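HUMAN: You are asked to prepare a plain-text protein record giving the amino acid sequence and the C-alpha cells, both parts labelled.

ASSISTANT:
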Amino acid sequence: MVWSRDEMCARAAKELKDGYYVNLGIGMPTLVANHIPKDANVILQSENGMLGMGPFPIEGEEDPDLINAGKQTITALPMTSYFSSADSFGMIRGGHIDLSILGAMQVAQNGDLANWMIPGKMIKGMGGAMDLVAGVKKVVILMEHVAKDGSAKLVSNCTLPLTGAKVVDMVISEYGVFEIVDECVKVSELAPEISIEEVRDKSQAEILS
C-alpha cells in the first residue's frame, strides 16, 4: 500500500531537526509545514524575503500582503522578520539554510535534478530552485514516483533541463524513502506492503537494496 500525500509529507517532516532553517518548495512540499514536530524549533524561510513563517491562515483571516514564494497566503509569528529578495538569496547562497524540500520532474541516480521546466511548455520562470540546490546543506525531493503519463521520474539520466547537477541527497515518494549515495539509489525505507521489485518496476534508475 503506497503512502498518501499526507503520509509522504509527514515522513519528510522527520528530516527536520531542532534549530534548522528550512526552505519548502512550491506545491506538495509546503504541506510539510503541517507536520513539523511541536518540540522542534524549525524556522521556515521564503525566497521572497521572509524568515519565520507561520501556518496557513484560517479561512476568512487571510492577509493578501503575507504570501510565500508560491503566492499562498501565510501567517506571521512573533519572531518573523522581513527583508529584501536580495538578502533572502544572500542567505541561501551563503549556505545559511540547512535543508530544502523541493518537488521534481526527474531525479537521476547520480543526484541530478530537473524540476524547473519542460521544453515547449510555458513557464513563469526558473524561480529560486537553482540557488536553493546549490546553496543549501541538504536537498530532499518530495515527489510522486511516476509522472502523469506513466513515465518514471527516478531515472538513470535526466532528459529534462537540469536545475542542478549531483545535488539531491534523498527522495521521498509514495513508495518509500531513497538515498542518493555514491551516485546510486539506495532504499532507506519502503511504504507498507511495497516490495523492492515494485519500486524497480516503477523506476528507470538502478535501485539498490
In short: The mean pLDDT is 93. The longest strand covers residues 76-82. The first helix runs from residue 5 to 13.
